[in-house]
Amino acid sequence: MCLAPQDDDIINRLTPMPTDYSPHPEHHFTFGLWTVGNVGRDPFGDPVRAALSPTRIVQQLASLGAYGVNLHDNDLVPRDASATDRDRIVREFKNALADTGMKVPMATTNLFGDPVFRDGAFTSNDARVRAYALQKTMHSIDLGVELGAETYVFWGGREGVETNAAKDPQESIKWFRDAINFLCEYVRAQGYTLKFALEPKPNEPRGDIFLPTIGHMLAFIYTLDHPDMVGLNPEVAHDTMAGLDFSHGVAQALEAGKLFHIDLNAQKPGRFDQDLRFGSEDLKGAFFLVKLIEDAKWPGMRHFDSHAYRTEDEQGVWDFAAGSMRTYLILKEKVAHFNADADIQSLRDELRSRGGNPHIVPKFSALSGRELKGRAFDLDTMRAQGYAYERLDQLTMEILLGVR
Ligand code: GCO
Ligand code: MN
Ligand code: MN
Fold this sequence. Notes:
Layout: H1 7-14, E1 29-32, H2 33-36, H3 54-64, E2 68-72, H4 73-76, H5 83-100, E3 106-108, H6 127-146, E4 151-155, E5 160-161, H7 169-190, E6 195-199, E7 208-209, H8 214-221, E8 230-232, H9 236-241, H10 246-255, E9 262-264, H11 283-295, E10 302-304, H12 314-340, H13 342-353, H14 366-374, H15 379-384, H16 389-400
Parallel strand pairs: 1-2, 1-10, 2-3, 3-4, 4-6, 6-8, 9-10
Antiparallel strand pairs: 5-7
The structure holds D-gluconic acid and manganese (II) ion (2 copies).
């Protein structure tokens, strides 16, 4: 087959497609207060932007078409706020939510900023720190539920080591398990319907973080007392930092019914945690991620855990936010093109029907085992045949490049 377009294709291409990439609440786009609120501090430099108030963030994101905002306890209520201050801040924030219709679908705890967590929270060597981390998380869960959160994220950025002389890694896993079990019981005792989403990351800020990948976390979940309450919050950048194919990890979580939340951003491999705008690196990876999520009709939140370049002023922050959602919607449209592309689909159909009956390897029985042992294969033909993946990938690239 050649790549020359048919007449119909040329006509289709000349007819402008109705394109509307404007985000709306039903797209379920969310941002963290800490993401658009990022002031551009880095290990080498001071903040470059003024802090934005949570109410301003809510109003701006609502006007851009987002569904909601997510938060750490201390993104909203400062660490040293009095009880009266806390109530006032929460009241004002709730008013902004009510005025705009914005939701808070996810909440989480800051278990990394306070120097008390320098050796971790649930896995600190100091038992008092482990207890304080539980206390802080219980209060933060109450806040999240008060704001309507249905998912509660655990990102253990400080749960790790720089030197393996510091901790017994088996004991650390047990401490982490004890903490999650304790908090599951707390949620049940309060009568909350909250689900937990664990977020793996291989390193940064710790030299090495425990439970570093989706696979590690998934295996860990099944050792918990209430595995049904606990799933995953995977993040593009984190698996990319580990050199893994993110969409494969997400697929495994989806297939297990454990994709409870997702952190979308972009990242160059082999770098520090960049938190780049979704789709701005590895466009093909972003495309196959959107394809996976959209084809599965996954109902969850499309959460952007990323921030504007440090070069930006406030306008750049809103450009970043609008761009994140727009890129997702453009890729969603590309997915529809891919799924409707006759050449691509016929190649895929041919691949899937190759070898005849897809159940050619039956469930084991004494009979099927005996039959398979005796079957003759035409190995020469099977060895000689190519898979046309070059052509398939080129067609995919041409969709992404906008010429198909
Ligand atoms: C990171 C993490 C965090 C978490 C956040 C919510 O690399 O810093 O991705 O942004 O997602 O703390 O739990
Ligand atoms: Mn991250
Ligand atoms: Mn994250």
